[in-house]
Amino acid sequence: MRGERGLLIVISGPSGAGKSTVIAALMRRRDDIRFSVSATTRPPRPGEVDGKDYFFKTREQFARMIAEDAFLEHAEYVGNCYGTPAEAVQRQLDEGYHVLLDIEVQGAAQVLAKRPDAVSVFLAPPSMAELERRLRGRGTDAEEKIAGRLETARAECARARDYTYIVVNDDAEKAAGELDAIITAQLCRSELRNHFILEGDRSI
């Protein structure tokens, strides 16, 4: 046990915003963060480990978890189901770790509806022009796919106001520093620190 309960942190942002790079930089800064492990019905790929990369479930198991309201969010994508198991997340929070969910805006809305205590952060590109430059720089997508990603990104960025914080990723280390500062600020909220305020020999 690490002591105080951890924070649930929801991060969203369009493809090309640099979420993976920023999250990796954040996790190098802090040793008290854990990345949420999703459940999926897709078969494991070579080298993937159950409980580490994903919780691999059958369709029947996944359907049962939905019926039992065992997910913070879930969705179906390209014929496979994906979801965030609430119990696994809560276990890590209770151990004092901050749990990070990298999730698209629809899934984030599901999580925040169930967990209004979650800290929500939208990771935005500095501009749509820069986002387009990054997507084209990958050199992996056809023109039609890039156009689709940009259209989706505009729709996602329009939802940024639904989040408590917006971090602009024009530099990954700077963006990670802002995320680090957000976590620190959240931990300093008065309702979490009242027990440190003493009146005589008694805590308030």
How much of the sequence is in beta strands?
Answer: 15-25%
Taking the alpha carbons of the first and last residues, their distance comes to 25 Å
Low-confidence stretches: none
Question: What is the tally of beta strands?
Answer: 11
Structural class determined from secondary elements: alpha/beta
Question: Order of strands in the sheet with the most strands?
Answer: 2-7-1-8-9
Radius of gyration: 19 Å
Describe the sheet with the most strands. Answer: 5 strands, parallel
Query: Helical residue percent?
Result: 40-55%
The sequence of SSEs as H and E is EHEEEHEEHEHEHHEHHEE
Gross CATH architecture of the domain at 8-36 and 98-203: 3-Layer(aba) Sandwich
Our count of helices gives: 8
> What is the CATH domain class of the domain at 8-36 and 98-203?
Alpha Beta
CATH topology of the domain at 8-36 and 98-203: Rossmann fold
- What characteristic shape results from the CA principal axes? globular
**The CATH fourth-level homologous superfamily of the domain at 8-36 and 98-203:** P-loop containing nucleotide triphosphate hydrolases
Mean pLDDT across all residues, rounded? 91
Can you tell me about this structure?
With 204 residues, the protein is of the alpha/beta class. Helices cover 42% and strands 22% of the residues. The protein has 8 helices and 11 strands. It has helices at 19-29, 59-67, 86-94, 105-114, 128-138, 143-157, 172-187, 190-193, and strands at 8-12, 33-35, 39-40, 55-56, 71-77, 80-85, 98-102, 119-124, 165-168, 198-199, 202-203. The strands form 3 sheets. A 5-stranded parallel β-sheet has the order 2-7-1-8-9, sandwiched between helices. Helix 1 (19-29) packs across helix 7 and helix 5 (128-138) runs antiparallel to helix 6. The longest helix is centred in the C-terminal third of the chain and has 16 residues, at 172-187. The radius of gyration is 19 Å and the shape is globular. The model has no long low-confidence stretch (mean pLDDT 91).
